[in-house]
Design brief:
Blueprint: H1 2-29, E1 32-34, E2 44-46, E3 56-59, E4 62-65, E5 78-80, E6 87-95, E7 100-107, E8 123-127, E9 163-170, E10 173-178, E11 181-187, H2 191-198, E12 215-218, E13 225-234
Antiparallel strand pairs: 1-13, 2-5, 3-4, 4-13, 5-12, 6-9, 6-13, 7-8, 7-12, 9-10, 10-11
Length: 235
């Protein structure tokens, strides 16, 4: 009888622990939306097109640009089907040797007016700092708000290793987090922002950095790059 009671008690404890873990996991995921299911390009398309180009492939739970096996007309920046206003974006990325890519946000997809994602959307740089020529340019290194603000700390991991990046935008307050550390903070759409844009390569583009609602894009810069665990929370 004691043995049977012990088995029953152990089963109850195990069930309670399991329920606790499930509740915790549910709480942790509350409010987060998967932008990438880990298996397909569902929810994404190439900028200005109706579907994702086949140069973007999925393997081992990651979406990647197969830059070594290109098909004409099947590349281009990948953008979300949905638009977002205030949000917390989180994803993992790794770059190839000498590679360049970027996470572009608040993209206004109007191909007749804007030929590319970067005509409207600011960018969190994804880069091999040591191997790519952009690594020698201030405000062009991994984690920088591209051509606008240099990251306050460089903590990017070596080529081939995964990094975790976060972009938080809430009522104009913009923050970049890389590998758990805040590296960029600024306010969009105020006088200082306008001055930053005026002093950058984007100064002649009237739509750049002006949209308060837009899409998220993964940049095709011609190099192999991988993204995974892409989630977003609306704020």
């Amino acid at each position: 009888m004691r043995s049977l009671s012990f088995v029953i008690l152990a089963a109850v404890i195990l069930s309670a622990c399991s329920s606790g873990r499930n509740a915790m996991n549910s709480s942790e995921s509350k409010g987060w939306q998967k932008l990438f299911d880990g298996k397909t390009t569902s929810g994404w398309h190439t900028y200005g097109k109706s579907a994702a180009g086949t140069d973007w492939k999925v393997a081992d739970g990651a979406i990647f640009l197969d830059a070594k096996n290109r098909t004409p007309g099947q590349g281009g920046d990948l953008v979300t089907n949905e638009e977002f206003t205030n949000y917390h974006l989180k994803l993992d990325w790794k770059i190839s040797k000498n590679g360049n890519s970027g996470i572009i946000f608040n993209v206004n997809e109007d191909p007749a007016k804007y030929k590319a994602t970067y005509n409207t959307g600011p960018e969190m740089q994804v880069l091999d700092n040591d191997g790519h020529a952009d690594g020698k340019i201030i405000k062009h290194r991994a984690g920088d708000l591209y051509d606008l603000i240099k990251s306050r700390k460089e903590n990017v991991r070596p080529v081939g290793e995964w990094n975790t990046s976060e972009i938080i935008l809430n009522n104009g307050q913009l923050e970049f987090i890389q590998n758990g550390e805040s590296i960029v903070k600024t306010t969009m759409w105020d006088d200082n922002w306008n001055q930053l844009v005026a002093g950058s390569k984007f100064k002649a583009w009237p739509g750049f950095g002006t949209y308060k609602t837009g899409k998220i894009a993964l940049q095709d810069h011609g190099d192999e790059v991988w993204y995974r665990n892409i989630v977003i929370k609306r704020l």
